[in-house]
Write a structure and sequence with these properties.
The complex is a heterodimer.
Chain A (H helix, E strand, L loop, with lengths): L1 H17 L2 H24 L1 H36 L8 E4 L8 H6 L2 H6 L2 E8 L2 E8 L4 H5 L11 E4 H7 L6 E8 L2 E13 L9 H12 L1 H8 L17 E3 L8 H11 L4 E3 L3 H42 L1 H9 L4 H37 L8 H28 L2 H5 L10 H6 L6
Parallel strand pairs in A: 1-4, 4-6, 7-8
Antiparallel strand pairs in A: 1-3, 2-3, 2-5, 5-6
Chain B lengths: L7 E2 L5 E2 L9 E12 L5 E12 L3 E5 L6 H8 L7 E6 L2 E2 L5 H11 E4 L11 H12 L3 H14 L15 H12 L6 E5 L7 H18 L2 E5 L11 E6 L2 E4 L20
Helix pairs in contact in B: 3-4, 3-5, 4-5, 5-6
Chain lengths: ~425, ~270
């Protein structure tokens, strides 16, 4: 631990020293000496330089092209899977025939007028074309239907006569069709209860209210569910529903509501509008993660090409680099020279690749139906990956050269990454 | 290049006078030098060598192939580390220097001439000569003046814009000599500088060394397997089987500029 801290402190000291104005000036001086040398080397070995630059250009362009394709595909998936928001939190279907005056009728229900806000619309359901009434969040019905307690909630409630005619009962699955921006969307809902509409003015008042009141009665509920009370008067193991559907008028509040419901019903399968889209996005993310790795591999391959060329270049120039050391260039300066040469080639290639990639995406957008687009993050990650690949490619040749003595280089001897003589004595790897 | 060589700009902002009093002082000293290369069971290229070089001296190290001449020169030049022993240059012990310290020492105090010239192929003759001065950090104007002087001195002014590929072996070696002298090093070490040249070019190079030695008091240690070059040197060090068999210590004060008739190197 102490060693590790010492090493860290030493590293920080060196970093601070490197940032000292005096050392920055020295670095600038070194660049002024070795910069032209690197430029000359890059220009003199034009074929090699072009090869390395093209590796990076190809890597960058392919990366951007693929990234734009994935972005386009992800956007298309999100659009296709986007669902129109359900206009209510709790849905009661079949409360009256289409064309009825539900608002006026509901006005006759005292508690509804006092405590609820209604949405009414006509929808094609698996029970026929019906009038759908949505009861929004925050009212007594919502509480009664269980979003605030361990009782089954988030279901569709169907009038008894309709349920009998359609042959559905509590627990059955019906489908409600909603018209959204992308056309008809079918949404399966399970029947949470069957009620008897009121005798006179109330559309569903009496029976539903009884049903809700019954639900709110914990003792009755527990008896019906076959559960026992603990000594403290609370259920020992609240038996939550298997599935809870959450509808929130404001989609922005959905995560909060989902979290609340999950807390209430830990074992339940919680569903909400947009779940399918989110699952699609998650699935897409599951695809894009390995795709991201594949994209990184593009740079790895480009870096490998650059690495090979740089190593070959080093091996061809051992003597020259050794002479540089002999006339006084330090190990770090020679390492920096190799990095500088590689950086110039990589930077040129990356810039070329960025231009090519952006142009390629623009051209594909003209001929492809899938809209491709690049984000600034894609461009930034392309540059970052190119820089990382370049450093990996240049590190080995640079380090080999840094660690070698001038005699080794001038004499064209084999170079080993490990500067210890035992490495050369073994020699099994063959060195460079 | 200044005539006579009695007062020269030393490249670090002052004028260095190589007087008679200074000559004869030991500036380079290798003590108990041995070098073992880790090849197979290990090969002792140099078993034991004690060598002192006085300032202004022209030392020729000779011996058969494989006797350790180049290894000795590499150790004296700080290009390699000895397995045993130590080298001191103007009182600075190599063993006390880390790699960057040794690089700084080579940069300022040592000049090298190699058998295969080893000019940087990407640079012109002029740029090759100026490189050590740029590493030291001399001003551009000063570098320009000195490069012109040196190229004039080695007779290569007319080829200053040529790259090494466009020069003959003898011409490349002249440029290499100019490069070695660029920062007015304390000592120039030459490893078989004539080994890759025809006999005339080889003698021209040795003549150049002698002129710089006589007129500027430049110290030279030249390795050559050709004992015929002994006439150019103050002292001949003979080696055999990794050991110095004779001439390890200065036996007499080297000839001085005043004592030797010679023209200007320019």
């Amino acid at each position: 631990m102490i060693d590790w801290l010492d090493a860290l402190a030493g590293w920080l000291r060196r970093l601070v020293a490197a940032l000292h104005p005096r050392n920055l000036c020295r670095t600038a001086e070194e660049v002024s000496v070795f910069g032209p040398l690197a430029v000359r080397s890059v220009k003199r070995r034009l074929a090699r330089s072009i090869l390395v630059s093209l590796s990076f250009a190809a890597g960058t362009a392919v990366y951007l092209g693929l990234a734009a394709s994935f972005n386009g595909a992800a956007a298309a998936v999100a659009v296709k899977t986007a669902e129109p928001p359900l206009p209510a939190d709790v849905i009661v279907v079949g409360v009256g025939p289409a064309g009825a005056q539900p608002v006026a009728a509901l006005d006759a229900v005292p508690w509804a007028r006092d405590y609820e806000v209604f949405d009414c619309w006509t929808a094609e359901t698996s029970l026929g074309r019906r009038l759908v009434v949505g009861l929004t969040e925050g009212g007594r019905l919502e509480a009664g239907l269980g979003l605030s307690g361990p009782i089954p909630a988030g279901k569709v409630f169907v009038p008894r006569a309709l349920a009998a005619a359609a042959g559905v009962d509590e627990g059955a699955v019906v489908e409600i069709g909603l018209t959204g921006s992308r056309g008809f969307v079918g949404r399966p809902l399970s029947v949470g209860g069957v009620f008897t509409p009121g005798r006179a003015a109330g559309l569903f008042a009496d029976a539903l209210v009884v049903r809700l009141e019954e639900s709110l009665d914990l003792r009755t509920y527990l008896e019906r569910e076959g559960l026992a009370l603990s000594a403290a008067g609370r259920p020992a193991v609240p038996a939550g529903p298997d599935s809870v559907a959450v509808w929130e008028r404001d989609p922005g509040d959905t995560p909060r509501l989902v979290a609340r419901v999950r807390k209430l019903f830990p074992g339940a399968d919680v569903q909400w509008p947009g779940l399918a889209a989110e699952e699609a996005r998650r699935a897409a993310g599951g695809f894009f993660s390995p795709a991201g790795v594949a994209l990184s591999l593009v740079f790895f391959i480009a870096g490998l090409g650059a690495f090979n060329v740089l190593v070959l270049s080093l091996l061809q120039r051992k003597t020259e680099l050794g002479v540089l050391k002999a006339i006084g260039a330090s190990d770090d300066e020679v390492f920096g020279l190799i990095l500088l040469e590689g950086a110039m080639m990589a930077a040129t290639g990356t810039l070329l690749g960025l231009g090519t990639g952006v142009g390629l995406v623009g051209w594909l957008n003209r001929i492809s139906s899938l809209p491709l687009h690049l984000t600034s993050g894609d461009l930034g990650s392309a540059v970052g990956l190119a820089a990382f690949s370049f450093y990996l490619a240049a590190w080995l040749p640079g380090t080999l050269c840094r660690r070698a003595s001038p005699v080794q280089l001038v004499g064209g001897r084999r170079l080993y990454l490990n500067p210890r003589s035992t490495c050369a004595q073994c020699g099994r790897c063959g060195g460079f | 290049m200044r005539e006579g060589g009695d007062g020269m700009d030393n490249g670090f902002g002052g004028t260095e006078v190589r007087s008679e009093a200074v000559r004869g002082t030991t500036i380079l000293c290798g003590t108990g030098l041995a070098r073992r290369f880790p090849v197979g069971e290990g090969v002792w290229a140099l078993r034991r060598a004690d060598l002192a070089v006085a300032e202004g001296e022209f030392v020729l190290v000779t011996g058969p192939s494989g006797c350790g001449k180049t290894t000795l020169l590499n150790l004296l030049g700080g290009l390699d580390r000895p397995t045993r022993g130590d080298v001191t240059l103007r009182g600075v012990s190599y063993s006390r220097l880390d790699e960057s310290g040794l690089a700084r020492l080579r940069r300022r105090e040592l000049g090298f001439v190699f058998q295969f010239y080893n000019l940087l192929s990407d640079l012109t003759a002029e740029e090759n000569v100026s490189l050590p001065m740029r590493l030291v950090g001399l001003r551009k104007a000063e570098i320009a003046v000195r490069v012109a002087e040196l190229l004039e001195a080695v007779g290569m002014s007319h080829r200053k814009d040529h790259t090494p590929f466009e020069l003959s072996g003898g011409e490349q070696q002249r440029i290499a000599v100019a490069r070695a002298l660029a920062v007015r090093p304390a000592i120039v070490l030459a490893d078989e500088p004539t080994g890759n040249l025809d006999s005339k070019s080889g003698r021209d190079i040795m003549e150049l060394f002698r002129r710089f030695n006589r007129e500027l008091g430049q110290t030279f240690v030249v390795v050559s397997h050709d004992p015929g070059f002994a006439e150019y040197a103050h002292r001949v060090v003979r080696m055999r089987d990794g050991e110095i068999v004779s001439g390890g210590e200065p036996t007499a004060p080297p000839r001085t500029a005043a004592a030797v008739q010679g023209g200007s190197p320019a």
